[in-house]
Every structure is written in structure tokens, then in C-alpha cells.
Amino acid sequence: MRKRITCSLVGDAMVGKSNLLRCYLGKTLIDTYAPTVFSTIKDSLTVGKKQIKVKFVDTAGQQEYSRLRMLSYAKSDVIILCFSAIDRLSYERISLLWIPEIRRTVKKKVPIFLVATHKDLKSEGYVRRCTRVVSKEEGEELAEEINADGFFETSTTDSCCVKKIIECAITAVHYNRTRYLQTLKNVFFK
Ligand SMILES: Nc1nc2c(ncn2[C@@H]2O[C@H](COP(=O)(O)OP(=O)(O)O)[C@@H](O)[C@H]2O)c(=O)[nH]1
Ligand SMILES: [Mg+2]
Known about the structure:
The chain is of the alpha/beta class. It contains six helices and six strands; from the N terminus they run E-H-E-E-H-E-H-E-H-H-E-H. It is globular, with a radius of gyration of 17 Å. The mean pLDDT is 91. Bound molecules: guanosine-5'-diphosphate and magnesium ion (MG). InterPro entries: P-loop_NTPase, Small_GTP-bd, Small_GTPase, Small_GTPase_Rho.
């Protein structure tokens, strides 16, 4: 039987990781902030004609949980790395903190998808008055710099986009695995 794909959501606290996952799973969004310690959710999705089993790991962004967090996502097959488009510090911490932590934590090389959240809030007057929002171009540059496999800007108001992001991440792992198995078959059963 095919191994379950582990997909982890990583990034600063408050950037919207848990709500992104809730949005994908069709669960009610949580308006008030409820810090995550760590949670796992089993699900499945269909890629082509294949049913793929997935385990989502939703991690805590706070530094006081760093040891628990690193244990929780060490076995990831793919990472959804999030920052908030209206929180420049969370963007800067992608290369300063999150990429080094991911490299220390996940021993194999796994695909990383960079996601800018809170897209719907970028155009809000009160946000623009008090912060310099992160542009799409800055997000794309960062994705290139960290060698991410993709970059997306989204928000929980666009469930279609959220669904595409998660499916893209899972599909990337699925096809890598299929290609690897095909190569093995070609070598041993040609
Ligand atoms: N407007 C808006 N609010 C969001 C969005 N995503 C998350 N939030 C809010 O941002 C806060 C933090 O979200 P949460 O998912 O708990 O962040 P986490 O700590 O990264 O898991 C909560 O108050 C959410 O309601 C979004 O796309 N748009
Ligand atoms: Mg959370």
C-alpha cells in the first residue's frame, strides 16, 4: 500500500496556517486567535484516478514550542511555508528563521511551497496606513531565493485557491514518488 503523504504547515504564529487548513478541509474558520500547539489531521484526495492518503501537520509558530514543533514535522514529505502579506516581519523570518529550521529538522530534501496569506487584507485602508504590505513580486523573489518549488498569494476568502495550493503540494510529492518507482522498475524489471 502507498505510504501516506505528510504535508506540514510551518511559519510564524498568527499568519493563518490553521485557518488555511480549515479552509481546505471545509471546516468553519476561526475568527479569534487560538494558538496551535500541534495537531495532525488525516485526509485523502484524488490525483488523476488515484486516491492519495494525506496527513496534515499543523504546527505552532511560537518559539517556546520549537522543540515540539521540530519533532512534529520532522517526517514531512512536503512543506507549506507561510508568511502574512501584511506582516513584513513574518516575511523576513522566512529566510532568517524558517528555512534554517526546516533544513535542520527535515533530513531529506522535500518540496517547499511558499504561501503569502491574508491577501484579502492587503487592500484595506487601515492596513496600508500602518504597514508596508509585502508585494507579490517580493514574494516571488523570496521564493526564488530560498529555492521554493512554488509561490502563491491567497486568503481564506478564496477557498478555490487554497484548494489548488494544497493539491499542488500533494501532487508534487505523488508524482516524484511515481517517477522514482518507475525508475526502480525500469532498472530491475527491464
Ligand atoms: N482576513 C483574513 N483573516 C485571516 C486569514 N487567515 C487567517 N486569518 C485570521 O488570522 C488570525 C490567525 O489565524 P490562524 O490560522 O490561527 O494563524 P496560525 O497561528 O498561523 O495558525 C485569526 O484571527 C484568523 O481569523 C485570511 O486569509 N484573511
Ligand atoms: Mg495555528
